[in-house]
Structure formats: structure tokens, C-alpha cells
Amino acid sequence: MSSYRVPKRDMQFVLFDLLNYEAHTQQLPGCEDTTRDIVEAIMDEGGKFAENIVAPLNAVGDKHGCTWHNGEVTTPPGFKAAYTEFVDAGWPSMVHPVAYGGQGLPASMETMMSDMMGAANWAWAMYPGLSHGAMKTLLEHGSEAQRQTYLTKLISGHWTGTMCLTEAHCGTDLGLLRTKAEPQADGSYTISGTKIFISAGEHDMAENIVHIVLARLPNAPEGTKGISLFIVPKFLPDAAGEIGARNAVNCGSIEHKMGIHGNATCLLNFDGAQGFLIGQPNRGLNCMFTFMNNARLATAVQGLIHAEVAFQKSLSYTKDRLQMRALSGVKNPNGPADPIIVHPDVRRMLLTQKAFAEGGRMLAYSLAQLVDIEDHSQDAAAKQEASELLALLTPIAKAFMTETGFEAASLGMQCFGGHGYIQEWGAEQNLRDSRISMLYEGTTGIQALDLLGRKVLANQGATLRRFTKIIHTFCKSQENNAELKEFIGPLAAVNKQWGDLAIQVGMAAMSNPEEVGAASVDFLFFSGYVTQAYWWARAVEVSLPKAQDPFYAAKIKTARFYYQRLLPRTASLALTMRAGALGLLDLDAEHFVF
User: Fold this and answer.
1) What is the pLDDT of residue 1?
2) Which ranges in 225-283 belong to alpha helices (H)?
């Protein structure tokens, strides 16, 4: 059942009311033509494509899934035709450099497109979506010859890209990978090994697939310092840059998964496949982080879209479903019962979904603007600040937004009651599809360790202070605004507590390093609630002058719900952080029995 509608009003609110998008693009060389008219035209046309072409295939993809036969993968009915139409319309090239066939728009426009396409059909959107990380990796680390050969085709959308990291014996710990790269006389390499869990690793939608593969050179140092990065195409380009001979890479199988059935998750065998080195030998992980960070930001958007889909489905259903009467009096006198949206607990679930979807959109679009600054600004200080803020906020966005997206999807099922557990309404598909987001591109636990260990404690909180200072400055600027008092006080308090908790965990870790791992996930969730509280306060600030409009009034009331019902979760997180590692590690491993 497809009922997705692009939330244009909210997207416009975030871009233009909250983030002052036109002023943002005017400050970026090469992006000055990205005016509001252009953005809204893209939103309108992209929205039509999402609603009319992609969304109807969502349930189709879930029902039919992908099929594997003799190493070839067939995508669900309609997927290939929709992708061809997508390419013909020029959507894949939108945010990429003009020099390689792109349209030169800022990367933030891709985040907006991902918001729409992903909510319409996440499984379909992954096929073109994964190519963006491959393109950025080649742009930043590839040679000019590699860009001319591969980047141009990826930008046009005629070829797609993948990220090949994981092996059966190593997921997060890439230092254990065994895939080998042997140098050849012609300067290429033969790649041998097996990679698993490769999203869109084989399909019939594009004419070629460009795999970005981590492998180990002979006599390379052990661990992550001995990893190199390679381009391994499904079909080797010929002298004219078109597809030529089939390379020795094949899909051994596809996974049978809990969700996103319409996207093929592949086991790929590299049987002496020809590959080409990207960047310097043994520096592959550094290059791959360009891909991984791009993918983590995209996965944060996935959290947002599952919350959005849950909210849209739940809102429609709870307005129509009649059950019981409101305790405060009959609300539907002409019917046998009142719609369930009148009941307080249903409102709690709806408002939680709404708060996480709209708060996630604010955070995701603000991070997209930081990527724009990294990509286009000529101000060195601005680029440095954007890079540092992205380093801090990327793990927060990826983990917090996917966790809350799953929570919203689960609440969506609950709003439907028993009807949520059956396939007809799509609520259970949304829940199943959302679950993977907390696992791939680094689990919540891995993001938490990255945040607390590398991004906060490693530099004694300097990067964290850069962001808490932004929040502090905002709070100081509004401390005399009586209409914002109910938001500014709590925000200032949790912002200060955020820095204090980092110091406390850091001090504890000086005597026991396990304290970092013990506190990390709670610290990440605390960080997520504070970060979204900041954006909700900002949303109230810009909504107050327009509060007579029901849309803006709803922003203020949703922010109030967030502060009253969701931000207080930080209190328990602070307690569990301070509980320390002993309660987690006191029971010896051999005593875990059943």
C-alpha cells in the first residue's frame, strides 16, 4: 500500500526558515545559481518521481525480492525501468562536478533527494545512492585517468558503485581482512578473496558495476596500516572507456534478509580479478573513510525516512480508525466510536514519530550544509570548522537517527494495533527495513566508541567544545526572550552537563580504560538528544513570529513535547554513564551460562 507524500512544507521550513539556504549557497563559489526557485523546482520534480514512480514499487520489491541465478541478480519488477527513467532525467549527475559531466549543484541537494527517494522506497534508492560514495572517493583520491574512465560513467548513472569491505571473519575489524592484491607488470593488480554483505553488489539495473575494494598487498604491514584500496569493475573498460571484457568477479549468492528485500545483498568472489590501485599503497583505509563517512551520513537519512514513513502511515490510520470514546467526552457524535487519534497514548506515539522525523531532518540538512562548505568554500577557517563539526556529528547522526527511526517505526506498528503486524498496511515492512540501519556502516556501539573515544576524549574535548559553544552562544542570545524560556533553560543545562559528563568519563578512563566502552552508547544517546534539542529550540525561535499559521504553531507544540517527554531521557542516561564499567564486567565470561 503506497501512501507516501513528500513533506514539502517541512523540507521548505528546514531549508529556508531554519537554515537560510539561499544565503548559504550564495557564499559558496560555483553554487550561486542554487536559488530558492531552483531548489523548489527540484523538490517538485523529484517529489513527483518519488511519489509516482518509486513509491509504488516499494511493496513490489518487498514481496518479490531479488533473484539469483548462475551469478546474475534480477531486481524486482519495475526496478530497472524506474532506474532507466531516473538516469534519463539526469538525476544521478545533479551534485557532481561539471568537469566530469555533473550539474555542479551542492551536495545538500542530494540529501534532499535522498529524503524523498529513500522514504518512497529505500531498497530501490540504495542502488543509485551507494554510487555517491564511490564517486566522492574517486574524486578525492583517484588519478585523473581513473576519473575520466570511471567517474564520468558513475556520474551519468550508466554505471553504479559499491563499497567492498566486509569479509566473513571480519566486519568492523578490517585489520583482519585477507583479500589479496598481487601487482602485475602492466601496473594493475590481481584481486583474490571474498567479500560479504555487499549492498547492490550485483544487479541488472546498470550496464556496469564499479567495486571499490579493500585488499592487502604482498608483504604489507599487518593490521589496518597494511590495507590498500582498488577499483575492480564488473566489466573492464575498453580503449574507448565503454564496457569490455567480463572481469573475474562474480556474485556467489545473495542473502535472505529481514528487510530491504528489493536490494541485493551479495557475496562477491574475486578470483584473480583485475584491479587498479586508488591512492598510495597501504593507505587504503584512509581513502575508504571518504566512502564510509558519505555512507554514514546517508544512513542517518535512512533513520529520518523510516520515522517519516511511520508518522505518515500512523497519522492517516489513527484519524480513520474508530475505537472507544475519549475520556473527556464524545468527539465523534455521528459515529459509533471516536477516532483513536483523540487518545493521549496514541498522541504520545504520533508526537514521538513526528519529533524524531522533523528533528532528524533539521540535523541531516544542517550536516549537508557542512559538507557543502567542505566541498566548495574558499575560506580555510570555515572549511576547518565544518570538518571538525562533521567529525563530531556524523557518528551522532548515524547512530541516534537510525535508533530513533527504528523506535518510530515500532511505534508505527503499535498505532495500527493488530493491523500493523500484517503486510497490507506496510507498517511491518517499514520496521523490518529500518532494522539494518543500526548495523551497517558501523553499528551503534562502533559509532559510540568513535564518538567518545576518537572525537571527544582523544583531543581532550576540543571538538565537543566547538559545538557546545555554538549551543551556549545561542542560549545566551535568547536568555532574555520570555517566549523561549521554557526551552533555553533546559537546553543550557543539558549542554553544560554534556561537557561535564565527557570530563567525568575521561577521568574515570585514566584509571580504567574500559570506562570508555561502558559509557559510550549512553554518551552517544545523550549527545543525540541534546543535538536535536538545540535544533528544536532553533525551530521555535523562527516559528514564534509566525505562530498564527497552524504549521508554525505545530512546530512550537512539537518542540514542547520533545522537551517535556523526550529530552528528559538524558537524566537516566547520565545515571547509567556514571554507573561505570564494574557492573558490566564484574561477572566473568565463564559465568555467563544458561
Assistant:
1) 46
2) none
Distance CA 329, CA 119 (A): 37
Whole-angstrom distance, CA of residue 176 vs CA of residue 193? 13
Residues 6 or more apart whose CB falls under 8 angstroms from that of 256 comprise none
To the nearest 10 degrees (0 to 180), the angle between helices 485-511 and 462-477 is: 160
For residues 180 and 171, give the distance between their C-alpha atoms in angstroms, rounded to a whole number.
17
Average pLDDT over residues 125-150: 95
Note whether 93 and 159 are within 8 A (CB). no
Element (H, E) at 126: helix 122-141
Dig out the grid coordinates for 276 from the structure: 587498479
Residue type, 103: Q
CA distances from 323 to 124, 330, 409, 420, 464 (A): 36, 12, 22, 16, 48
List active site positions.
441
Of 285, 303, 486, which Cα lies nearest the Cα of 406?
Answer: 303
Euclidean distance between CA atoms 484 and 478, whole angstroms: 7
Is residue 200 within 8 A of residue 263, CB to CB? The reply is yes
Please tell me whether residue 298 adopts helix, strand or coil conformation.
Answer: helix
pTM (2 decimals)?
A: 0.97
d(CA 414, CA 218): 54
Longest dimension (CA), the chain: 84
Say how far apart CA 186 and CA 276 lie, in whole Å. 10
- Tell me the pLDDT of the chain averaged across its residues: 96
Q: Which of 370, 361, 360, 442 is nearest to 401 (CA)?
A: 360
Residue 468's nearest CA partner among 430, 495, 493, 437 is: 495
pLDDT tens-digit map of 64-110: 999 999 999 999 999 999 999 999 999 999 999 999 999 999 999 99
* Cα-based distances in Å from 1 to 60, 82, 186, 304, 426: 10, 18, 54, 20, 6
Cell of 472: 551556549
**Alpha-carbon radius of gyration of the chain:** 24
Q: What is the C-alpha end-to-end distance of the chain, expressed in Å? A: 43
Which residues, in sequence order, are CB contacts of 545 under 8 Å at separation 6+?
Answer: none
CA distance 407 to 404: 5
Phi, psi (degrees; rounded to nearest 5) at 306: -70, -35
Does the pLDDT at position 204 exceed 50?
A: yes
Amino acid symbol at 561: F
Q: What is the pLDDT of residue 175?
A: 81
Helices and strands in the chain: count of H runs, count of E runs = 20, 11
Per-residue model confidence (pLDDT) at position 2: 52
Q: Dihedral sign for Cα 272, 277, 281, 285, please.
A: negative
Dihedral sign (CA 212, 364, 526, 430): negative
Q: What is the pLDDT of residue 174?
A: 82
Strands (E), 279-386: none
Residues 275-297 have pLDDT tens digits of 999 999 999 888 888 878 888 99
The C-alpha cell at 508 is 574515570
